[in-house]
Write a structure and sequence with these properties.
about 190 residues; mainly beta; Porin; two-stranded antiparallel sheet
Amino acid sequence: MRKLYVRNQDATNKGATVVRDDHNNSCYLLVGKWGIRHDALSVYDIQGDLLAEIKQTSVGIFPKFDIFFNGNKIGSISKTFGLFHEFLYINKLKWFITGSLRTGSHHVYSVHKRIMTVTPVILYGAGYNELLITSQATEPVCICLAAILDHWTKKDSKSGVKKTASIPGWQLSNGETSFNNIHEHKKNKNKLTE
């Protein structure tokens, strides 16, 4: 089980987003955009290999996204109507998501097993999502899901956001902190396991 941190996508944070672990090591790169049909968010490892994508297939009030892992479509997700608590289902994977688009807190399950927990946090004065993922093999897909859930979350609500202590970085001699820690980790690139 590992914690990853993804900065919230907003007007001030466009382009690539580095996904870091709780030791502030760079683990993944999240690149892309959404809004029109065929837009995609892609997750790359630090070496530049494409691991997972989520592609927008429809627009409107309830947009639909297809999820790809290692180039293969593994499921799809679409926004549903809910006032306070949401229930989303990812077909093919048979995962379901519970939580609140008002607070940004979510849980992803497969039958009775938890896959991921998403918790909004404040780090360095900016909004992040803390992802607690049970299996390293599912991390790229979970990052894609967290990015879409973050996009759907109502940004005007501050409830549920907790402040977290800074994750470590390298302290430089001039008093600044470096966040360029590259952390290599082993993964099974060919299989999405729970």
